[in-house]
Amino acid sequence: MIPFNDEVKLLFKPIDREQLKETYALNELNSKLELLVGYKNNALIFYIDQLFIFNFNNRNYIVFGHEIGGYFILDEVTGRVYWLYLASDKDSDVSLMFCNSTVNQFICFNNLFFSVVDKVMFDSVQEDKVSSDEDIFYTIEKYYKECDPASMGETFEGQECYWPTRTYELSDGFYPLTEAHIEFYATLINKGVNGKSGN
Q1: Which of 98, 125, 139, 186 places its Cα 20 to 30 Å from the Cα of 22?
Q2: Are 80 and 105 in contact (CB under 8 A)?
Q3: Entry's InterPro entries (predicted)?
Q4: Which DSSP letter does residue 39 get?
């Protein structure tokens, strides 16, 4: 499934294989894409076969994956990872959320997050299990702050941060653990409804 708000995709241009060697950040990303874990209940997919370039505010970003609400992009110059989404009803209102300072940190954060999601899903079906979820939520947030402090602030250089939102959603039971989230958006798309989503 593509992101619910996919108008911005019209601005993406495919990257050919020769371009992959042009910058350190792009080469670094391309060599590690297969390490990233996807997640079907939020339509999270990383692009192994085709990357895209997107120009925003006179900067080039590499588009390397998406989930239901937006796209994951890499700043070609700084190597920082962001989440790209449409912030309002205007197609031109593209916004970024800061994810991580490097590709390596993003891979660690993403894969650890979905290990915790798997544990929460497993614990939810264990009737006689005393849940230790609160401990694991505290632990993952603490670990994230140690690994990439900038990623867990309220903002980074004027932009909201992605991971505090996701860890909050998971700890408070809002993060999708079933296919219901996808089915809901698929129904809206089939009805021709198109909204704009921030987080």
Answers
A1: 98
A2: no
A3: SUKH-4
A4: B
| Band of residue 35 on the pLDDT scale cut at 50, 70, 90 | very high
Query: For the purposes of burial, counting CB atoms within 10 Å of the CB of 85, is it exposed (0-12), middle (13-18) or buried (19 or more)?
Result: buried
pLDDT digit string, tens, across residues 112-171: 999 999 988 887 766 555 456 678 999 999 999 999 999 999 889 889 999 999 999 999
pLDDT at 25: 80
Range 87-96, long-range pairs (CB < 8 A, 24+ positions):
87/196, 87/198, 88/196, 89/196, 91/7, 91/8, 93/196, 94/8, 94/56, 95/159, 95/198, 96/56, 96/159
pLDDT in tens, 78-88: 999 999 998 76
DSSP output for 83-101: EEEE-SSSTT-EEEEEEES
User: Token pair 């505290």 is at which residue?
Assistant: 138
Give 100-141 as a DSSP string: ESSHHHHHHHHHHHHHHHHHHHHHHT-TTPPP-HHHHHHHHH
- State how far the Cα of 64 lies from the Cα of 85, in Å rounded to an integer: 14
Q: What are phi and psi of 174, to 5 degrees?
A: -95, -20
Say if CB 39 and CB 110 are below 8 A apart.
Answer: no
